[in-house]
Amino acid sequence: MSRRIGAVSRIFVAVLSYGLALVGVTVLGALATPAFAGDYALCFGDESGGQSSDQKEANVDQAAVDQRIAACTAIAEDVTQAQRQRIKAYFYRGSARDDREDWDGAIADYSQAIALDPKATSALFNRGTDWSNKGDYDRAIADFNIVISLEPSASDAYSGRGSAFLRKGKIDAAMLDFQQAIEADPQNGDAHTGLGTVWSKTGERDKAIAEYDKAIRIDPGDFIALVNRGLAYAAKDEFDRAIADYDAALAVDPGSADAYANRSAAWIGKNDWARAIADANKAIELDAGMVDGYYARAVAWASKDNDDRALADFDKVIALDATDARAWLGRSLMRSRKGDSAGAAADCRKAIALDPKKIGSCDAGPANAEMPAAETASKPDLSSLAKQLETTGRQVLSKEAAAQIREALKQQASGDVPGAIASFGYAISLDPDNAEAYYDRAVAAASQGDNALAASDCRRAVELDPQRAGACAALMAGGQTVPAAGTQDQAAQDQAAARILVERAGARLAKYGVDGALLDFDKAIGLDPKNADAYLGRSRARTLKGNQAGAAADCRRAVELDPARSGSCDQQTAGDEGKAEQAQDSGQSKPAAAAADAQTIHPNLAATDDTLAAKSLETKDQRALQAILGGDAWLDMGKYDKAIGAYDVVIALEPDNRFGYFGRGRARAATRDYGQAIADFDRVIQLAPNFAAAYFRRGLAKVTSGDVDGALADCDRAATLDPKARDAHYCKGMAWHAKGDAGRAVAAYTVAIGIDAKDDAIYYARGMARADSKDYAGAIADFDEALKLDPGNSDYAVARKAAGAAKGENQAAMAETAPDPVALAAALERGDASYRKRKYDRAATEYSRAVALAPNEPSTYSARARARLQKGDLDGALADVNRALEIDPSYITAYHTRALILIKKREPEKAIADYNRAIEMKPDNASLYFGRGSTWYSIGDFDRAAADLDRALRLDPKSEMARQGRKLATAAKKKALASKTSGKLASQAGQQAPAPQALTRAYINAEVQKQDSQILKAIAEEFPDDYNALLDNVMVVARLGGKQAVENASRVAVAKLRRRYAPLLPSTPDNEASQALSAQLAMINYLMARQTPATCDNYLRLGPDAVSASDNEFLVHLDRIGATLFRAFGAAKRSGLPAAEPEDQDWSLVAEAFTKSGGTPTEMEAIANANQASAGLCPATAKLFAAALSLQGEPGRHVKTALLYAIVKN
């Protein structure tokens, strides 16, 4: 999925920003183009016409591009402009330079945008793409890595990185990235095309075709997928299908010489020489240097017996590329036809020299041999030549590698042999299984006296192509004449080569290529017999192959070389020390052995890393490794339930695999299941006592769950194990802050910042700690730094503003109203002394003096309120706590005091509301639960009373009042239940029936529960106080009016609550936002299936009242919509997530998804004209919602919450 914003997506977003307000879906944050300057419109507008990158190459309006660059330059280089505008200007100037393929200029512009905003993922993505365009795949991968770290579900970044890996020849890594890209976004056509290319390279043509099919279904105009599928069909001799794909590709890009040359080869496969020649002519017309065009035409002319024209085309191929063995072979056969035996033999020898596989395809006899006259009239069979062409057309070769080989040969011919060796090496990195590259580098290395490299490359070339054995014999022999440890340079070279082989083998193991991994481990050990990693890796591979004895022997050798590896080998070597031949004891049953293993934990002191190599080496069962990688992918995408499921599989297969428990612990912590997360981290630490990451992860979980001392111990241990672990010090800061020691928290955060000065969250945390210690200047500096790193973070902005205000208020207070601290302390002390002596009048007087001395200090008002409460002055006490809460709305003591006052005033519901607010802020305060439990008891809600008093007792086991209160509540509950049962029995016995049920809250609640209303259940669970208030309202209405009045009151109350909590929606987690938006989409789909189009459209314009013929299913959908919204409100209130405000790029992703799902300009127009009688509003809105739901990660959350917020507001 490209992030270069096209005209279609821009129009889409602009339409949305105006069109959906009237249907209840105002899109927030749409791409707003400033209207105050023409230069802005020209720069931020899109001149590309929304075309694909393939189409752009043919028809970019250079004049328009130049104008756009000039407009963006004026904005980007004007330092007086707002930073956001400059970032956009650099981005769009880079995009314009991309249009004219000025990769260096585009990279420079994207780099400027990134310098201003290091988290500008669109700029990072585009820069990565341009590094790929330049062939600098390592830098491309680095940029894509950053995008993925910022957006773990960024499908396009995974596919971009996969393409870079593919071009580097890292097939396994590319495959994994393309699969993750598809998992994140099944509609990513580029990822399907890339995965198809990977399957083609591995020879899995049917799988390749299946992926190309998916890519083409997503985008029927995907040129690369069409061409590649054509090649795959041709490789299966399905030439008609191949030709159909080439036809479709040419419809997309009529100027593609490659497509014409490929179609020419397919016509040759069908023996249609005339069409083959016509397509080859067109390819050559489009690209005069098109080697494949000339070659295809040569074969077609030869097949038509036009030898002269065939010879001329073969001559042209050789002139363009003297390393093309096909052309030398073809010309040899043509010369043989014409009786030029000497020329034919010379060409044949040249073909074989370039490609030894050509041996037997032509006559390489003596150069001076002459063919008998009788034979010159005969025509050699060209079927082998045609077959070679077909084979060439079928194969998906690495064009980049071939180009590098040609360049290297030119360098070698010009005398630049070291440069040639480097170029051959680059070709090998692009295509690690290219025998030609290894053989050519071997020849070049031998010419420089590097016999070791020559022999090594030749051995690899012969493995890949055994027919090269003869040509390599001399070079291999030369390599053997050099002693294995003849020089320090060679020893170092062998060790380096061994390390590379071990790394590659580990990658193969990760994808279960056991045989290939074994080959690499064997070679690594041959090069460096003291490489412990090689022996350890081979032991794992042998385990996967079932060779337990060999695995144990390798593990013992690894331990001999490096004793620190002992923990990794315990299970292989247990019981086998010194007796390798008896490694497989047939007398011991497998279940018994497994049971023994399960009872013993073998701590691995060397297990300290969390890398792919560590996972590959430590995991024995390939299914477990697959589950680990799958769980990691789910975790990165925020799909925690699926991640937990994957890690459960790991643990079932390998109960002592630390990565299974570690991953599951992280996933459980992400779902706030801290108890289970801590249990998983406990197990990890048992298995790997020196694994620092497990300690700080457990520490963070303990901080959140209230075990501050335990957290401190874990964080300290993590920092000791790995002093450079940033998160270990961050963990210490969190723990000290939670413990109330802001000074130590600041110190720990400062260490973390010293390790990584680019983490905005740590600056924010340190700022909060500084603010708590009244260091507002330091806090402001930290919040400013956090905002530089993440300019759009609303939490940081709010904290910055609050710190600024606090700093100003403090300074003003100190300058204008600074109280005498001695006098204030004395007044409070006298008041407290009088209060303890129960002299409440005198206490109130002293507290009044304290209020006069410090009129902006909430504690003075709260203290006086307590004294007035004891005097019976309830109104005065209430006025004091209200004033305290005006000064500091987070002052918990005031809420507690006000609750006590409200109980005295016989307003228990309001008192409970105050207890609820206080408990939200301090959930571990036993006295608050005791107060709320006592209040529940006073109004007869014994279940809730017992629950709160039980909680109070757990928090403070020494509280005798809580214990007695719980006993009373439990007894009252039993008594009420017994009374209810006896009344029922009396009625059944025919005694006088009880009086009609009074309208109480309990009765109303029971009636509501009978209705099974999901929306009311959601309100009750998420906002119990509001639910009780709703019941009270309904109870009053029910006494005064009938059923309709109750229904109306309920609807009004729910609507008020919905509007009240609507502002919370931008902080809704993605899961709950998706559920709420899915409910909206389900309603639209239901209406489109059951109602007329006009009714459905009017529902969006006017609301539920537009559906007059509603059935029970319609009401169920409405109920689900309301319930999912209130669950979203509740999740938002608990989440602590920053408010999500969609960025430009978020809306562009929606636009692309909308278009890919079939959204049309007409449907955009329907949305835009929702206030008119335009048809098609429902299908268009359904596609919009589906497009939003397809987005993952933060971009998806931003868009979904914005849509929901707009719906609720309207």
Architecture overview:
With 1210 residues, this protein is mainly α. Among the domains are: 261-396, Tetratricopeptide repeat domain (Serine Threonine Protein Phosphatase 5, Tetratricopeptide repeat, Alpha Horseshoe); 397-482, Serine Threonine Protein Phosphatase 5, Tetratricopeptide repeat; 485-572, Tetratricopeptide repeat domain (Serine Threonine Protein Phosphatase 5, Tetratricopeptide repeat), CATH 1.25.40.10; 821-979, Alpha Horseshoe (Serine Threonine Protein Phosphatase 5, Tetratricopeptide repeat), CATH 1.25.40; 1011-1209, no CATH class. It is built from 65 helices and no strands. Helix 37 packs parallel to helix 39. The longest helix is centred in the C-terminal third of the chain and has 29 residues, at 960-988. It is elongated, with a radius of gyration of 38 Å. Residues 1-38, 46-59, 367-384, 387-398, 477-487, 570-600, 812-817 and 984-998 have low confidence and may be disordered.
Our Rg estimate from Cα atoms comes to 38 Å
Estimate the global geometry from the Cα principal axes: elongated
Discrete helix count? 65
* Span between termini: 33 Å
Helix content: over 70%
Q: Please, what is the average pLDDT?
A: 77
- Point out poorly predicted stretches: 1-38, 46-59, 367-384, 387-398, 477-487, 570-600, 812-817, 984-998
Q: Kindly report the oligomeric state of this protein.
A: single chain
Content of β-strand: under 5%
Q: What's the count of strands?
A: 0
The computed structural class is: mainly alpha
How many strands, what sense, and barrel or not for the largest sheet? none
